[in-house]
Amino acid sequence: MTNFQKTPFSRTLSKFAHHTAVSEIERRGQALPGSVVAISANGAIVTVNFDVPGQAIPRTSMPVAMSKYVQIPVAVGDMGVAFPVSVYIGKQSGLGTGSPAASKLQPNLSALVWFPISNANWDAIDGAGGAVGIDASVVTTDNVVVGNGASGTFSSSDGQTIDVQDGIIVNIY
Asked: pTM here?
């Protein structure tokens, strides 16, 4: 008599369902913490080293979660989390071609997007409002409001110069 004939079907069915569910979860990508080790020339693509103890995960290149209209500075060493996307994003990120197929599950590391995260140990930005530049300089705009299509150069009270073209801040120095 085989084991199949001895084991109650009700017990094996629940084990089979559990095993199938766990296998499917493992096939899907997981959010992984890491740090930036390389950046593309335009700053839109980063290569990430994953910080997962006990796991040998290869460095992976992926897009940074940002718009072409609001581009954030990214530096080597920046910490963040790589989140999985459920469909192919090669065409959207510029890292591949073709269109996403909603019915096809992507391999674990092929559809990740990098999200930089904040850190409780960072120094506070000096002053109300503003941003920290990639070189750690504080950038403020002193409430300069730029309308759609406006162009020009503005000066802040702390001596910074802000260049605007067609309503987009293009340079702060």
From this structure: 0.60
Chain segment 92-134, per-residue pLDDT in tens:
888 887 776 666 666 667 788 999 998 888 776 655 455 555 5
d(CA 3, CA 165): 75
Write down the pLDDT at residue 139: 52
The torsion of the CA quartet 120, 121, 125, 131, rounded to 10 degrees, works out to -70
Residues 6+ apart with CB under 8 A from 28: 84, 86, 105, 108
In angstroms, the Cα distances linking 85 to 62, 109, 144 are 11, 10, 37
- β-sheet with 45-50: strand ranges across: 60-63, 45-50, 32-39, 79-84, 112-116
φ, ψ of residue 40 to 5 degrees: the values are -65, 165
Mean pLDDT, to the nearest integer, of 30-38? Answer: 91
- Which ranges constitute the DSSP H helices of the chain? 3-6, 9-27, 90-93
Structural contact between residues 39 and 75, judged by C-beta atoms closer than 8 angstroms: yes
Within 13 Å and on the Cβ side, how many CA atoms surround 141? 16
Structure-block tokens of residue 134: 């990639």
> Rounded to an integer, what distance in angstroms lies between the CA atom of residue 110 and that of residue 138?
36
Return the amino acid letter for 19.
Answer: H
